[in-house]
Every structure is written in structure tokens, then in C-alpha cells.
Amino acid sequence: MKETGKLLAAIGICQGAGIIGSFFVASSIQEWYLFLEKPLFSPPNWIFGPVWGTLYTLMGVSLYLVWKTRTKEECHCGPLTVFFFQLGFHALWPIVFFALRSPLLALLVLCVLCISLVWTTLLFWNVRKLAGALLIPSVLWVLFAAYLNFFLWRIN
After folding, report:
1. Average pLDDT over residues 114-138
2. CATH code for the structural domain at 2-155
């Protein structure tokens, strides 16, 4: 039961980052984002919620695997520090993009996020391969988000 609590806490922490960001998205979608010119490859708005929800869950499971893998002798403080750093940038991006309405600054946030997420993936992979593998979909999606963000900045 204790392990289930840790798993749910880890998923909850990650989902919390998504929830923080979502507060800044809702009003801006109708007032601003809807009127931006979008590239042809931009997915429909409804897809983002389920994708991010799934990715935050995978991140939570990954966090749990590293958290539970550590022993009393090893802290895994480095990988966990980098994980929480990138998680903060996950929460920061929608604030910058939607609340501040700054695609250029948001693109810079995504660059830091991409680097720190790849770094987290490598560190987690070294602790437990499955933990690193679970972050690969997030890396791919964030790279796609950066690609979209770049084009939104360029054409608007």
C-alpha cells in the first residue's frame, strides 16, 4: 500500500505541473490563440489535453521508478533535481505562451525544457532503463511543441 501511495504522489506531482499550466491556457485559447494563424501540421486543440495528461502520467511513473529504486546509500539527488527543474519548465511554458502571449519567449523556455528533459531522460536511464524510456514520448512531444511554437512565432 505504501508503494501505491508513492506512485500516486509521483503522478499527482506531475499532473500538478499540468494543472498549473492549464489555468493560463483556458481563457487565452478563446481570446488569443484561436485567432493565430497556424501551420498546416498543427493538431486540433482537443488533442493537447489528452496528450499532456498521458505524458504527465508517464512522467509520474518514471519519477516513481527512480524514487523507489534508490537505496539508503544512494540518493539520486542529481537526477531528481534535474527532473524537478524540467517539470518547472513544463509548468512555465503555458504561462509564457498563453498568459504573456509571447511565442518567442515561450520558444526559449521550450529550448531549456528540451535540454533539461533530454538530460533527465539520460540520468533516469542510468538509474533504471524503464524510467528513462517512459520519458521518451515527452521528449518527442516537446520537440514537436517547439517546432509548432517556432512556426507560430514566425507566421504571426
Report:
1. 97
2. 1.20.1260.100
